Amino acid sequence: MLSRHVHAVGVFATAVAMLVLAGGCQTPVTVQPPVDGGGNPPVGDATQPIVNFTSPTESADVNDLQQIMVKYRVISQRPTTVKLLLDTDTNPGNMNEMDLAPIRSYSQPNPTDEVPLVAARYPYGSYWIRAIVSDGQHEETYLASGTVRIVPSSLNPGEDPGTTDLAGLEIVYTSGEPVTVNGKIPFADLWWELDPLDNLAPRVIMPIEVTEPIQISRMQAFTYGRTDVMPRRFEIYQGTDENSEGTLIHQFNEDKTSHFGGKWVTMTLSPPVTLQPGKYGISYHSRFEFTERVAGNSPIGAGFVWVSPVGGAPFAKLDAEVFGFTPNFAIRLLGKHLNSSSARAKEPTVLPKAPRLVYRNGDERAVFAPHEDELMELLPQYHVSWREVLPQE
After folding, report:
1. What structural domains does the chain harbor?
2. Which terminus of the chain has a lower count of CB atoms within 10 Å, N or C?
3. For residue range 220-251, what is the model confidence (pLDDT) as tens digits?
4. Cα–Cα distance for residue pair 299/296, rounded to 1 Å
């Protein structure tokens, strides 16, 4: 009969036993003596399988653009299986665990293995890494010695991840990070209030496809602009595809600051919006000219956008041939997958590190790179600037 025991952090005697079993080669995970259903310590079994986590070995923050490797060694002479989970607490089997990897089988004794923990797959929050190991006769549960906290990459420098209001949310849609061309990223200036000098108020609708029900609570765009508080607008259109810009169904206004350095700006949707599977369009813009610019050239999207130079003017479909870059603008939608099991079964995009802008001579007034309006002759109704970037530290 298969016995089942639970191990958590904390008793020296068991740690010593594990060290002996491991041959003294690796530092074992410290565990508590197993306790059976009656609350009494069972008779020790030297052949019970053990999982020794070798990485991570202490608590760590991982942002949603990163992944870490979870490494472990199984100590057993029998064939074993290991199931890895993320758990919000130290209590096993209470239905709040999430799969970290499919069940892995080992025929050789004392195998070692590693699996990636891709932060974008999981809601923001703190997790224990749990391993359930079985050799056909015993089933044991072990926890890594530290927690992993998944945090947003959109934090401002020095901001404490524990103070954000994003706990429990996850990325439900992303167009990915903007891609550099010769070390620069294109940013388009978008606004909705008519500028009397230029007689312009350009806006863009970017098509997206939703493949399962999602609830959106936050929207993010990779931008640079003015750092004082200014009006921003986020819009959702329904039925946006290659033939139509779609129909406006949701509009949200919020006063937000932007970033001279180029960073993700987050807007709150109140109340949250539920989208069923289908085709939609996303639009993000500021109220005034030059107060917000949105990065393009992201890897995921339809490869075209619907554009109107003035509020109320007809939209036209424009692509990379016209813009000079792929008009997939850098946006992310945060919320919840309403069918979480199918969502977690999918393979999400692993996003590269976010870029940051570089100033000439460190002068924040020199915010424009050379030829910042180099597309003006081709697109006189739009302001597009290519900005120098470096990897963010």
Report:
1. 3-151 (2.60.40.3880), 161-391 (2.60.120)
2. N
3. 999 888 888 999 999 999 999 999 999 999 99
4. 9
